[in-house]
Automatic annotation (TrEMBL):
Biased composition (Basic residues): 17-26
Pfam name, any one: EpuA
Keyword vocabulary terms for this entry: Membrane, Transmembrane, Transmembrane helix
Name the record gives this protein: EpuA protein
UniProt-listed InterPro entries: RNApol_su_b/EpuA
Highest taxon above the source species: Bacteria
Annotated region described as Disordered, given as residue ranges: 1-40
Segments crossing the lipid bilayer: 59-85
Annotated source species: Geobacillus thermopakistaniensis (strain MAS1)
Amino acid sequence: MSDERHQEPMRSPSSRMARRKGRVRKSPLTPAEPEAKALLPEGEAAAPRRFVRTRLIPIWLRLIIVIVLMAASLAAGAVVGYSAIGDGKPLDVFRPSTWKHIIDIVEKGTDRG
């Protein structure tokens, strides 16, 4: 006892929400338009239209943006760590003498000879 009234017709592979939002275009030949087939020459099928997405920001520019943001966050972290946690002047962290001093402290702690 199957009730054929409640069976839905076969749907296209895309989701209903994508079709509703207009992201997926239907092909020009749908089952509801049999007269459109009569306009095509015999044996020729219409190619389905596909949604082509273009990138707003190219990949190479994304990589540059990520590298710049990483460098900025490294510099900001060093400034905050040296000035707020280490009680030093904020811009002293960029002096080479500061890093030489830090390296000397680290190397002095590892020599046990």
